[in-house]
Design brief:
Blueprint (H helix, E strand, L loop, with lengths): L2 H14 L13 H5 L32 E4 L7 E3 L8 E3 L2 E3 L7 E7 L2 E8 L14 E5 L3 E5 L34 E8 L2 E2 L5 E3 L2 E6 L2 E8 L19 E5 L7 E9 L7
Antiparallel strand pairs: 1-15, 2-5, 3-4, 4-15, 5-14, 6-9, 6-15, 7-8, 7-14, 9-12, 10-11, 12-13
The protein binds magnesium ion.
């Protein structure tokens, strides 16, 4: 597909969005007409036990309705993107990248979600620019949210920590020094395609980095890539979550996910 055509497709899809699928939390939400204001027969929200925040010494605890993908003990929820068992190392409650062993992804597939990830880059730092603690959280194995040591480390803006790689730099650089545990809270809504593969809805991402808003409902141009902005290609509504081995060291802990099923209820 030509660059011009890809840009045009993106624009058309963006314009079509408001008249696409109904979305929860908009004035067209059918629940607003189904229930009168303060209707006491309207179902209450399900009760859950919220999680607890982490500290530098200890990871936090996931909310009771989350799927815990890594709890500090084993890699049972993960496999190597090359096939077979994930070859990263579990040590002292965290997951460590073993450079050169390849990306790892979840056994289970996910689409729209709230994702919590804690990560740390090597201290003392190794190298600089994109070679300093580079990893990444790939929603649906296709849309990379960048992990990098961006504390006093200059690189291109759309490749620093908390960027949607190659598309959107973060609103601010909320990075902590290397070696310290940092958090991403990612709200992701995947793209939608009709049965013929036509793009109905763009993927969107909202992210807090160490509690600070860094991506505010940005619309992705398509899958993320190095030196390119490829257009969307049809794919299933759920795909595995992937963590990148960029041939550099890095650590993860306390990874949990909550599936969002009714953002655009029918
Ligand atoms: Mg990366």
């Amino acid at each position: 597909m030509s660059k011009q055509f890809a840009s045009l497709s993106f624009l058309i899809a963006a314009l079509l969005l408001p008249c696409g699928a109904q979305t929860r939390g908009t004035p067209s939400d059918p629940d607003l007409t189904r229930w009168k204001v303060h209707d006491r027969s309207r179902p209450a929200a399900p009760l859950i036990t919220p999680g607890t925040p982490g500290t530098q010494e200890n990871p936090g605890r996931a909310p009771s309705d989350a799927i815990v993908l890594f709890n500090g003990k084993d890699l049972s929820k993960w496999e190597s993107a090359r096939g077979g068992a994930a070859k990263w190392r579990v040590h002292d409650g965290y997951l460590e990248i073993v450079p050169g062993t390849g990306d790892i992804h979840t056994v289970q597939s996910f689409g729209d979600c709230q994702l919590h990830v804690e990560w740390a880059t090597p201290n003392p730092p190794q190298k600089h620019d994109q070679e300093r603690g580079n990893s990444g959280v790939y929603l649906m194995s296709k849309y990379e949210f960048q992990v990098l040591d961006s504390y006093q480390n200059k690189t291109y803006a759309d490749g620093q920590a908390a960027s949607v790689y190659g598309q959107y730099p973060p609103l601010v650089n909320a990075s902590l020094p290397p070696g310290e545990w940092q958090t991403y809270e990612i709200i992701f809504h995947g793209p939608r395609f009709d049965s013929g593969g036509k793009l109905l809805r763009l993927a969107h991402m909202t992210v807090l980095h160490n509690g600070v808003l860094v991506q505010d409902n940005v619309a992705l141009t398509g899958p993320t890539a190095y030196m390119a902005r490829p257009p969307y290609a049809p794919h299933p509504q759920k795909l595995p979550l992937l963590l990148q081995d960029h041939d550099q060291s890095g650590r993860y802990r306390n990874i949990w996910i909550r599936e969002l099923n009714d953002w655009d209820s029918e």
